[in-house]
## 1
Amino acid sequence: MPSVGLTVVGPQVGAAMWSFNVNGRLEVWDWGTGGPPLWELHPTRRIGSNTLSRHVPVQSSSMTNLGALALESGLEHELATVLDRQTASVWLVAQPARLAWEDGLSHHPDLLSVDSDGNVTVWDARAVERRDETFLVKASRTETACREIGWAYSLFGGLPLVESLNLRWIAGARRPPEWLDVTRGVLLRLVAEGPVPVGQVMAADDGRGFLISAMWHLVWTGELVMDMSKTWDTSTPVNAPTDARS
């Protein structure tokens, strides 16, 4: 006999029942009326922590939403930052839905993203070593439920350490500086003939830091390219995107 508080889970049990928080009102969604109003969705649950929690809630600034996302962990924060950097992202929702099945199993996915083509992806952020049997059943059922309504589902396990650190660095420059229009042309001319070392860009700065800060912002936006998988130093090449040279 299972312990009190544990749910025995198994294969898909009936269709998933979706609930959304539309402008502060949590309601079971009738898909016969169409999809939910994505831009009016709010988190379906409040997140918090206590002395026994393994997660630390964070507020993540989002350039996609021009606001803050309430996230449950550093891994969710990393996922949100990855999505925020993608130029195709147009909307992000944290804790976007509650799914429930006939056997009592329920699940709150971590994030929902919408791209410029209107494609919707539901995300769960979970390190590979923490994907136990119960989580994998929830993930499998959620993937099926998403597929049935024409949405995608994806798992995020985290970036390699160096890439994660580089992403955090350029995320600090995600807001466009006031002097970007003036410095963009200077930076693009520097790399017009091919990659140049970061140190060369720094040396071209007049000491006020305008060129350097603009460089990091353009790496964030993808207008300049650096290898995210390598440790950066002054010898690291900075380049224009390949398609910008074609």
Note: Helices lie at 74-85, 133-149, 161-171, 180-190, 198-204, 210-221, 242-245.
## 2
Amino acid sequence: MSPRLWLRRILLWAGAVSVGVAAIVFALGAEFANDLHQRMVSVSVLLPFVVGPAGLAFVVWATRRFFAGSQGSGIPQTIAALGVSDDKLRDKLLSPKVAIGKFFLTIVALLSGASVGREGPTVQIGASIMHALGRLTRFSRIEAERGLILAGGAAGVAAAFNTPLAGVVFAIEEMSRSFESRTSGTVMTAVIVAGIVSLWWLGDYTYFGSTSAVLAGAGAWIPVLLCGVVGGFAGGAFSQFLIMCSRGIPGRIGKYAGEHPILFAAYCGFALALIGAISGGTTYGTGYHEARNIMEGTGDLPNAFGILKMFAIISYMSGIPGGVFAPSLAIGVGIGHNLSTLVPYAPAGAVIVLGMVAYFAGVVQAPVTAFVIVIEMTDNHDMIVPLMAASLLATGCSRIVCRRPLYKALADQFVQRFQVSNKGSEPPR
């Protein structure tokens, strides 16, 4: 009944509500940007060739000029903030200024047609809100430096995907790689409150639609093996390429990107418009609607959607803010759709879900998070065992191609670059 303890609880609840509201507003803004870009495409297929280069060039300019540290997914920055002991560095990674820049610049990137997601940025925004809360109160050191950051990131995942359980698992498996008893209550409270806000505002919806398809019979494990191997190697190659690009694109292209980052971003925007034109406009944005159409068997999408969406990785090469969660899930849906033709005896919906979880697990190398997120998003609990098996197999295959988990590798690079920038060098790209 201590007044001080109740003050901390109230502030924690208020922070969790703020994370939930921010995630919902971010989701609505991202959907508005996606819809507006689709309207541009419907007016003229040539508009993306103007809006894309101009938009990405502006986002990179604003990121480098005003919001250094907001580029990329946002999850690596949050992981880096958990692992550093330098308060100044942590404040730079999770500052309100960076969170605001992440919010608006990601929406502008989506409006420009970039193939990015909002979930990773939501994690950094949520962690920034809770970190700011910790600075205003007298929480203990471990709560302020780990518990609140973990709670903010987990609450961001829960509210962004409308998947409370996935938020907890994500905090355990991906962001902290451990679960400390002193932070568990903080994480659980934030996730539950943020989840309640999301359910109250948006209702109990399934993120990528729903499917009741299941695997049965002796041949049921063939699709699991097929999707696990193909999705795992493809996801691992995707992650390895992202890590390589984050270190600096090799060759003349990388040299030009370093010397002329804004012009390079404009060229990336032009390339995205070209890919979008080839795909019939399906590779722009997050990929939510396209994945839902494939999952539910509605809409007319190209057979090469998954491959073309993967080529849209050029969005991340440009140096703009944006996540890889949603695009990776959409790519996995496309790969699963292609693989379903190789096993015609299996329900296409089941193979598509396996492709989604396998590719996503291959990218993030967090198998439990992958299958929990997919189960909660598709509301198909009858596929738990096949999804778990495909996720574990894909993670193993991914590690053959990409030795280090994507977010951990990117987090280490963020720390190194910020340390260099503090010594008077150029700010990190």
Note: The two ends are 49 Å apart (CA to CA).
